[in-house]
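Sample pair:
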Amino acid sequence: MRDLKVLVTTGDAERLRGSLVLACAQAALGGQASLFFQLDAVGLLKLPISAPQDANHQAAGLPTLATLIDEALNLGVVLTACQSGLTLCQLTAGDLPKGVDIGGPVSFLQATDDQARLLVI
């Protein structure tokens, strides 16, 4: 199974939610999945994590954004916050969930081979 690599480029919580669902499905099927949070998207990882549509999702029996992030990490999905995004959002590594890596676009691309599926969200 080809690796799934997702570049999260915006601070849109619903796009992130969709990305996390795909990444969790990939991991549940035995594949590797990684999300790279670039610039403003890093702000979505600030603890405590919440999203405007969380109540609607919970009412439908679906997980909150925070729960999806926890599930992704537990399934081995690699979540990486951009170093520049941390600075832009005035965050430190301590503001993020345990298990989120810090890195840059070069390291993300170096870990992405030609066979990987690369999605930009």
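Residues 13-28 form the longest helix (16 residues).
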